[in-house]
Automatic annotation (TrEMBL):
It comes from the Bacteria. This is Alkanesulfonate monooxygenase. Signal peptide: none annotated. Residues 5-325 form the Luciferase-like domain. It comes from Pseudomonas benzopyrenica.
Length: 382
């Protein structure tokens, strides 16, 4: 089975260390362009663009990067309760057409009640999922060319329709991640690809089996993906040193403050992430080569695969054996780490890579030449 490997656009900030301004990097349009173009040229299938008040707007970021990329797909956030499903359908169709069919959509119900209240959304966890189901039913049908009348508990539309269809037919794929029972019910009914954050194999297997069963009960099948950070180096020792360095400037007060902020979330996925490390630095390797250090101060995806290329590839293949075909990776800083992942990990995986980027001036893959007409030894022998 070939794998789709995505990268991540750090619209919330980037740098060499977590939880500190030391080694931080300014994230402007020029830098996001660098990361997106690197991902495009290196063979990543797409990029996830995060959402929330700490991030630049994912739709505008994606639109701004269409002209400077060629093959890269953009996984953009849909926010039920914050926007009308019919307006979101028009935006989705427009982005899909303007990008030449490179738009993907990630349904995000949200997990921080304070942030949601700031956006005018005051529903409980269960009510948000009710509204998300209604939103998605309308969004999907409108994009697929129907004229929709819908009378729901939270959303009502009459004569909703789309005059300019998306390029991808019947519509662009819908991704979604959530760990609660309500989230799994939504995934089983509505989405093409269910995402999980990086948990140990048994926990991920349990989620996949639950969603599979619920989807089968509705006569549907769902694909699966996973969101992970990656710290890959030429040796395992170097990789673990890089993991330690990433949190080298964290103090206990910063960890405590971050964990207190995450504790207010009503997201089951966030609660599961926090349970992996319990806010402590010791014993962060929670499964072979699965490290929970990122989650000490970062909300959302908080685990990383750590090791050399063959070791990390072996862990990836274990997840793939569960039925996962899409991996959304990231690493700090995102520009440099995109190259490390492509150069050190891709050769050990069955990666589904797009064809060569048009117009790229590809030079010899042999490295620096030591003299005219002399190839490095390995290249000459091959």
């Amino acid at each position: 089975m070939s794998l789709d490997i995505f990268w991540f656009l750090p619209t919330h900030g980037d740098g060499h260390y977590l939880g500190t301004a030391e080694g931080a990097r300014a994230v402007d349009h020029g830098y996001l362009t660098q990361v997106a173009q690197a991902a495009d040229r290196l063979g990543f299938g797409g990029v996830l663009i995060p959402t929330g008040r700490s991030c630049e707007d994912s739709w505008l970021v994606a639109a701004s990067l269409i002209p400077v990329t060629q093959k890269l797909k953009f996984l953009v956030a849909l926010r039920p309760g914050i926007i009308s499903p019919t307006v979101a359908a028009r935006q989705a169709a427009t982005l899909d057409r303007l990008s030449g069919g490179r738009a993907l959509f990630n349904l995000v119900t949200g997990g921080d009640p304070d942030e949601l209240a700031g956006d005018g959304l005051h529903l409980s966890h269960s009510e948000r999922y009710e509204a998300s189901v209604e939103f998605t039913r309308i969004w999907r049908r409108v994009l697929e060319g129907e004229t929709v009348d819908y009378e729901g508990k939270h959303i009502q539309v009459k004569g909703a329709k789309l005059l300019y269809p998306p390029l991808q037919q019947p519509r662009p794929p819908l991704y979604f991640g959530g760990s609660s029972d309500a989230a799994q019910d939504l995934a089983a009914e509505q989405v093409e690809l269910y995402l999980t954050w990086g948990e140990p194999l048994d926990a991920v297997r349990e989620k996949i089996e639950a969603v599979k069963a619920k989807a089968a009960a509705q006569g549907r099948t769902v694909r699966f993906g996973i969101r992970l950070h990656v710290i890959v180096r030429e040796t395992n020792e170097e990789a673990w040193k890089a993991a330690d360095r990433l949190i080298a400037n964290l103090d206990d007060a910063t960890i405590e403050k971050a964990q207190a902020a995450f504790a207010r979330f009503d997201s089951v996925g966030q609660q599961r992430m926090a349970a992996l490390h319990k806010g402590r630095r010791d014993n962060l390797e929670i499964a072979p080569n699965l490290w929970a250090g990122v989650g000490l101060v970062r909300g959302g995806a908080g685990t990383a695969l750590v090791g050399d290329g063959p070791t990390v590839a072996a862990r990836v293949k274990e997840y793939a054996a569960l039925g996962i075909d899409t991996f959304i990776f990231s690493g700090y800083p995102h520009l440099e780490e995109s190259y490390r992942v492509a150069e050190l990990l891709f050769p050990h995986l069955p990666v589904k890579r797009p064809t060569q980027v048009e117009g790229a001036n590809y030079v010899s893959p042999f490295g620096e030449m030591v003299a005219n007409d002399i190839l490095p030894q390995k290249a000459a022998q091959s």
